[in-house]
Amino acid sequence: MKKAGILLVLIFSVILISCKENKEAKDAKVEETKIEEVKEVQPIVVELLLESKSDSEAKGKLKFSEENGIVTMYAKFWDLSPGTHAVHIHEKADCSSPDGKSSGGHWNPTFEEHGKWGAKEGFHRGDIGNFNVSEDGKGSIQLTTDLWCIGCGDEKKDILGKAIIVHQGADDFVSQPSGAAGARISCGGIIE
After folding, report:
1. N vs C: which end of the chain shows fewer Cβ within 10 Å?
2. Are residues 149 and 99 in the same domain?
3. pLDDT tens-place string over residues 91-112
4. CA distance 131 to 170
């Protein structure tokens, strides 16, 4: 009887120790999961300044920010003539030529017709659109999209290595392949 009692105590002790170890292992897993959940994904940010082209004084500053697969572009421009101007993403981050044409044509990785951003008929991924410039020569535009990414490597979405071009006039959203927006008056490469 005494042996049976000792054996029972030993079995009970092993069960308690095993349960305690399992609970500690589960607690550690829960703690690991909580730590992983707390880690925040930092947004990817690229900022650029635009330089004047085509004998203009036009300048600008842009900020692209990507978070959770969504890219937001904030753009401010100054020293432009009052009225409506077009802004597009072009193929290459090359602003070396005096007329900005070294940046190539509109960025169009999906081979769509030129058009207004979001149009059912299609549009280039670089067809950002028009913005208004007030009498003081200042203007701005903002765009948020999941059709772009920053440095993701997807040829149809990645804006790194491209250029921002501001045009002298408005985009008519119809003329092919570029919207008849006139001279390229400001240029900046989208680079890290």
Report:
1. N
2. yes
3. 999 999 999 999 999 999 999 9
4. 8
